[in-house]
Write a structure and sequence with these properties.
Length: about 800
């Protein structure tokens, strides 16, 4: 970590997959892993290129069953550029002596620089410097500049520049028994004088994909085509002079048939690459686009945490850039960085959109529009399940159907097991929460009064219909679900999956019902009338919503909130014994299953479940929710609940340490940093043991940014005011960031030494109300104020 750069010295095959993920370059439209251009996919390297929203569906034979999976497609590899001397063998880090190797990811400029020095079989040394980018201004372009220098010799070399359409989806080991060939009907060709092209289509979704690569050399060269089936290549023969550098510029254009305003992807790619400017001009416009992005997402933390958060922000912006606002895509849980989770959209937007709302609200709006476009599919899913309203899928892809796999592999036992995670219906509450948060932060009443209220109504209708009244309790109950914990998917010995009255699910369902009623009351009369006519709402249904929102069952045991009904009856696990036997027990579920046991028998959680409530809601709002449900939530009850689950969680998800750090910052500040620090290291240190090489954890990365932005500042966009209740940690007590809020762009907040400074840029907008726990002040555009924070 050096002044806005991320660097790796030396070549380490064991770390190559991790480095490829963390050195991925993208622009929101597509991204390419940081693989060496001369290397193909093997046990060490995995070059992968992914376009947002580009999916394909294949059927595989798994354990005697036909299983269908939809995957984000690994598109043709545009990187290939390899060299050889007169020995005739292509130089790679695994086949030749590599004297030096260095990677430098420039976060400010969005470029990856690689330097390497090779020695061939006859002792000839070749220095290679490469600079690559995936263009942030023109989302269809990518560039690779290669500078080659002979050291101590002169003579001929050959350089091959190619586009490889023979790639498969093989980047995740546990998926490798499954069908993986998503590209078919490849065709290659040449457009003189310097461009090769490749076109193909996805196997079942029929998306047409085309790439065109223009390769230019600043030295005399003899060029010939070297196409092979599925691979378009140009072979360049030239002579090197000792000490003199030859530059090879490869400019690539990528289009698919999902792009608007084009007729033919191949024609579009050839036209774009043919009109593309030279390397210098493209580099300048790319850097300008990144400079503007960083200005809107300014984050200044003057200690060792700063560079890590800057890397996290870099990857968030590469996955969800302003270009994303033009696409029909959701939040891919593993970014555009690899094939884990098949590129699917889960609930991770719950951790991503709160950050984007205050920086790139137009992107948040587009991501919520992805959900709205699939509202009808969610309504059909609810109808097919005998429910009302909209039942959103736990895993979503191209068209909004449920993409959760039916089976999953336990690598420890080698067994394929039933997957019941589709019962995590709380994904609907996450979507509703994001609708509400976006509208509060942006003031976008146009969205709230149209797409937003339509989603809220149908999600509320789902929960009200799902909840069944239990006369013996005098409460409504939601049965047969799985909570955020994910370890528990059934009661011990039960024939059917699902749990009853998961506290997180029930409390967030009550929140959805209450907020939807609030939103309906605040609608303009004519808008409300049209919505009521369109959806068939009536006073009886709204009365039911209100009743359910006040009487959903929340279970308790031993003076704490129960994760679900019956949780307190489960056995206690020998945590010390399992840690002694296995060391890393993050995936305790796999360990127990391999032993012939099940985690369903124990009070053991993969990640925060009940405690997620403390991440979503401030203490005041959470207390109000529980009072609405007829319970008193005081600090004593909450702290007991935190302690109970903290000692029974294995942290098998990167989100777990994030949520625990967030919650502990208010509940037990002295212990918070341990978890915050682990959340920061989750991907860069690959704490989950090899998972980052399959794709970053976008929710965890964005969540650490939001922890600093909202968690530690207590920032809420609620009731038309910016509410702040800071709880600075010693390790994160001084920092500065910039946000967009309700039309105000470039609002600066600085936290330092018991003070909070707020500066609002000059504009024609209304003043911003800043609400602290003990007072409220109004800051007009063009003004600043410094507030002394109350003692804690």
């Amino acid at each position: 970590m050096h002044d806005g750069t991320w660097e790796y010295e030396g070549y380490d095959p064991a770390q190559e997959r991790l480095r490829e993920s963390l050195c991925t370059l993208g622009n929101g439209y597509f991204a390419t892993r940081g693989a060496a251009p001369e290397c193909v996919a093997d046990s060490v390297h995995y070059p992968g290129t992914y376009a947002a929203g580009c999916y394909d569906r294949l059927t595989s034979d798994v354990a005697g069953r036909q299983v269908e999976n939809e995957d984000m497609v690994n598109l043709p590899n545009w990187l290939p550029l390899r060299l050889r001397t007169a020995t005739g063998t292509w130089l790679t880090p695994d086949s030749h002596r590599l004297l030096d190797h260095h990677l430098r990811l420039d976060l400010s400029a969005g470029t990856l620089e690689r330097t390497a020095r090779y020695e061939d079989e006859e002792g000839r040394r070749l220095a290679v410097r490469q600079l690559r980018l995936v263009h942030m201004a023109d989302p269809h372009l990518a560039l690779l500049r290669t500078e080659v220098t002979a050291e101590g010799w002169s003579g001929p070399v050959e350089i091959e520049s190619a586009l490889d359409g023979t790639v498969t989806n093989s980047g995740v080991e546990r998926y490798r028994e499954l069908a993986s060939r998503h590209l078919t009907r490849p065709r290659t060709g040449t457009r003189p004088p310097d461009t090769v092209w490749l076109r193909c289509r996805t196997t079942t979704s029929g998306i047409r994909v085309a790439l065109a690569a223009r390769t230019v050399v600043d030295a005399p060269v003899r060029a010939t085509d070297a196409h092979t089936p599925g691979r378009a290549a140009r072979l360049l023969r030239l002579s090197l002079t000792d000490g003199r550098t030859v530059t090879v510029d490869k400019t690539v254009a990528l289009h698919t048939s999902r792009d608007p305003a084009i007729k033919n992807p191949l024609h579009a790619a050839l036209d774009r690459v043919g009109r593309a400017a030279g390397f210098g001009t493209l580099l300048d416009t790319h850097r300008t686009a990144w400079r503007q992005l960083w200005r809107d997402a300014d984050l200044d933390i003057p200690n060792s945490v700063g560079p890590i958060l800057r890397l996290h922000l870099f990857h968030v912006l590469q996955t969800l850039s302003p270009h994303t606002a033009e696409l029909d895509v959701g939040v891919p849980a593993r970014g555009l960085h690899g094939e884990a989770y098949r590129g699917h959209v889960f609930w991770d937007e719950l951790f991503v959109l709160p950050y984007l709302n205050l920086h790139l609200p137009e992107v948040s709006r587009a991501l919520l529009t992805y959900r709205h476009r699939r509202l009808e599919r969610a309504r059909r899913a609810a109808q097919d399940a005998g429910r009302t309203g909209a039942m959103y899928p736990w895993q979503s892809g191209s068209d909004g159907r449920e993409e959760t796999q039916q089976l999953h592999l336990n690598p420890r036992s080698g067994r394929w097991l039933p997957d019941h995670s589709r019962l995590q219906h709380h994904v609907g509450s996450a979507i509703a929460y994001n609708v509400w948060q976006y509208c509060e932060a942006s003031g976008d009443t146009g969205f709230l009064h149209t797409k937003g209220i339509e989603m809220l109504v149908q999600i509320a209708r789902f929960w009200a219909g799902f909840a069944a009244y239990d006369a013996s309790l005098g409460r409504y109950r939601i049965r047969g679900v799985v909570g955020p914990d994910e370890y528990h998917d059934a009661y011990p010995g039960a024939d059917e999956p699902g749990l009853d009255d998961n506290a997180y699910t029930n409390v967030t369902a009550a929140w959805v019902l209450a907020r939807t009623l609030d939103a309906l009351r605040e609608l303009p009369e004519l808008v409300r009338r049209d919505l009521v006519e369109r959806t068939g709402l009536d006073s009886a249904e709204l009365g039911l919503w209100d009743d359910v929102s006040r009487r959903l069952h929340v279970p308790f045991h031993a003076g704490v909130i129960s994760q679900f009904e019956g949780y307190g009856d489960l056995a206690e696990l020998d945590w010390a014994g399992y840690r002694e036997r296995y060391g890393d027990i993050r995936r305790l579920d796999r360990i127990l299953e391999a032993e012939g046991d099940t985690v369903n028998r124990y009070q053991a959680s993969k990640q925060a479940d009940v405690l997620m409530l403390g991440q979503l809601f401030s203490p005041a709002e959470l207390g109000g929710l529980f009072r609405r449900l007829g319970h008193e939530m005081d600090d004593t009850l909450w702290n007991r609940t935190v302690d109970h689950y903290l000692s029974r969680t294995s942290h098998g998800s990167t989100l777990s340490s994030l949520v625990h750090g967030w919650v502990l910052a208010r509940a037990r500040r002295a212990d918070a940093w341990t978890y915050v620090h682990e959340a920061l290291l989750g991907d860069i240190a690959d704490l989950q043991g090899g998972t980052t090489g399959e794709g970053i954890h976008l929710g965890a990365m964005a969540g650490t940014l939001d922890l600093v932005q909202r968690g530690l500042t207590g920032l809420e966009t609620r009731g038309g005011a910016l509410r702040l209740d800071p709880v600075p940690l010693p390790e994160l007590s001084e920092y500065h960031f910039t946000i967009r809020y309700r039309g105000h762009r470039g609002v600066q907040l600085r936290l330092s030494a018991g003070r909070l400074s707020v500066s609002v840029p000059d504009s024609d907008e209304a003043p911003i109300d800043i609400a602290l726990p003990d007072r409220t002040v109004s800051v007009a555009p063009g003004e600043s104020c410094t507030l002394t924070l109350p003692e804690r």
